[in-house]
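Now for a sample.
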Amino acid sequence: MLLSVATSETSACGFYFLVPKLRDQVGQAWQAEQDTSNVAPVAKGSKVVIVESPAKARKLQNYLGSDWTVLASYGHVRSLPRKNGAVDVTNNFEMDWTSDARQRQHIGPIKSAVRGASEVVLATDPDREGEAISWHIWEVLQASRLAGNLQVSRITFNEVTKKAVLAAMAAPRQVSQALVDAYRARLALDFLIGFSVSPLLWRKLPSARSAGRVQSVALRLVTERESEIGAFQAQKYWSVDAMLQAHNAPAFPARLTKVDGQGIGQMGFNKEADAQSVVQRLRDAQLQVRDVSRRESKRSPQPPFTTSTMQQAGSSRLGFTPSVTMSLAQRLYEGLSDGGEGLITYMRTDGVDISPEAMHEIRTAIAQDHGAEFVPQSERTYKTKAKNAQEAHAAVQPTNVFRTAGIRELQAADDSRLRRLYALIRARTMACQMTDAIMQQVGVDVDDQHSALMLRATASDVKFPGFLAAFGTVADSADSSESDEDGDDSSAGPQGPTRAKATDLGALQAGTPLLLQSVQATEHSTRPPPRYTEAALVKALEARGIGRPSTYASTIKLLQERGYVTREGRQLHAQPSGRLLVAFMSMYFGKYIDYDFTSDMERLLDDVSGGKAQWRELVQAFWEPLEALVSSASKEERVDVVAALDKLLEPIMFPPQAGQAPEEARKCPACDSGRLALKTSSTGAFVGCSSYPECKFSRTFAPADASEAGVIDASGMKTLGPHPQLPDHVITLRNGRFGAYVQLDSAADPEADLGTQPASKGKGANKDQDKPRRAGVPKGMAPEAVSLDLAMELLSWPRDLGFGPYVRQGDVFASIPKDVDAREITLEEACTLLTKKLIQNALRPPRAKGKAAASKGGRKASAKQSAVKTSSPEESLTEGTPAAEKKIKGRAAATAVPTKVSKGRAKAAAKTPSAGKATSSTAQSEAPKRRNPFLEFCSEHRPAVKAEHPDLPLGQVSKLLGEKWRSLSDEERLAYRKSMTRGEKV
């Protein structure tokens, strides 16, 4: 193989590899991986095992040998269709199960393999969802008359290791009907609230997209915190801090605690003058050590990870979103290589138990890694504190805790995040069975010669690291190391002075005179409660018993995808559409976003899974009042709904200033005569003037901080200064519906929007030509921090930065990840990157060429017709011809092959009589058109949507179809993309 280094015109540094025959090898491997349609029936009397993922299937096949055939279901094989009536409320909540294209693609090989088999073992995941998948598979086999005399059993295992799998095979059971009923109950509840409330939202609040049983309650937490922050009134206070030093000793900080016998609280002095008077007294005082106190304290480790605490720690310590943490944990659970084993136990659990066998291994590993003094005399046991916890599974832990376990697989992993998450799980598991950390705490009281002024200094050092050694950090006693799961990166309390060392303070003696190096009155301001981080939101949901840990990641991700919440840094910010949705739900469906109601519903669902309640009765009790509320809310006119929301949200949208009447806060600052009120549009909620269209003033849903601080004047604009290169233009800072932004304006009339070019009236004219040049202020930046130089920089974007380092084989390019040094990349790593890129290219649907390409043979688009390269070097078939379609369908439609320009055919096309001429409409209609997966999906589902919602306008139907498409999983979308490449209809 040949390694080459080169640069290109678009890159300062480009790397590429020439790897002969790599394409063919990758294509064959990929096709073998994806082609499940040719699974032949197993021999009569054979045994079949069904799991969820192909990675797990390959491992079990290695464990069980040739006597067994192991297949993957790729998740659910049936699902509820996204349409009204899928849960029949008139027929005891019967469910209309269907299989989509992707599911049919994967259930086919299972049916084929089961024919003639004597035994089927259902080995899906050991949770409620896994139980449901096993039940669905059995139901499908029965409906297909394949059950017959089959011996069907169910097994579960918490780790993908040979030992665990063989132990599970020796202890089969039947599918748990109670768990299946709990699954059906949850699905029915979520379906009923989603398909009854969401269409109502579309009609009443165009910016709202959906509501959910758990999703809306989680959103309520975020929006209420946002309201608390908005209503918070900061208060200033002053503390007195000093730097003191004994003779020939290090200086240390101290804070004033008493004045004339009166204690100074945490809030210090309310007036700066009082603090400054004490500062002067300290400068004139003679200070000495009054007392030195020493004591030891212990810190105990936390329990091993559950699903939620793993998500919290992943967010706080590693910066991963909950969904990323769960995705990485899934890979660690299934193992990183076909020949290896899973590296951690099952990651969806709320239990904190560790098996006796694993406990022995952990204690042995602790002694090996750290020493016998780090192993406690007795094993530690834990009890979960989470509300509604079921504790059905063991804690998340390594399958083999010894340091060398899984190192080879982890080092070869293409994602460094896998190594970081595994290291965190292992450290937490080790720490939970280690001794306490012993902290040495020292406090020093300092007073003056009259004992009128007293200061205090404290310090804490690690005397014995104990469990902290598992995390590799023992230097700082305040290092949480494992207790930072809440993820709050701000605090409402004041920050203390620089910390001293316990050894330095411990060397002081009572009566030691001290030199005052410096003293000052430090201004502080109380801070509002911090916004939720993803970790903090997970913790809050679990503490209230809302939802299940396995759903937290998808719930938070959904809130962000819907646009109800945005993530800025680590914090979650409630958006206007989210606050509007919560307000709407609180007005019309308050019961269903109540914290206690949702928590009680989780408890009742757990009763169903425990066989203590009937699922249909539970759903009936949920549906009857919901149906009545939906019927009542449907009668409300949209204008009345917006008016009610305007009144409910008035304190948020129009907070009056000191001494200002509430109605005065609604006065339009632009026209001075209109009244501000809540407005809604398809893009979201905003505040607009009642005098529209004469007055076009608008602003964000909540008051802009810049306006409140006086940065932007009443007209919503502030002039930053003239543009240095354009003397007739000025740059202004403005406040709009979507926040603060900068704009290039005419110096003669900055209040009038300046078009960069005269507006074109012709068909197809650029709609942006009559708009001024503008750029939004970055999120998280205060508008008052925007200077003229920064505004010019913002207006200069976007800038062409070119490409970064990449690897190349032929005409296939793959970017080198940011965490990989291009100078140190190996050939194996390059092959891995190229393999992934080839597979992505194979899955990508063909690009649409448009009408021009279909109708104009002489244009450049025709010269770039893609061709499929066959095994014969001289044979090339232009895509779209019957021969090519036959070749693609019969041979390697998904094989990773390059796209090549067919120059000869381009020249031939250029010589045709129609070259360069517009074709007729008939010719255009007959030309083959590229099919789009999304449009194919819409064509298939539009009749059903129209039948379900006959009153919805066409725009809302299209919006619903788009929503359905976005809700599809990657596998479901892939089925439509594949059908496009094969020319089939899903």
The chain has a mean pLDDT of 77.
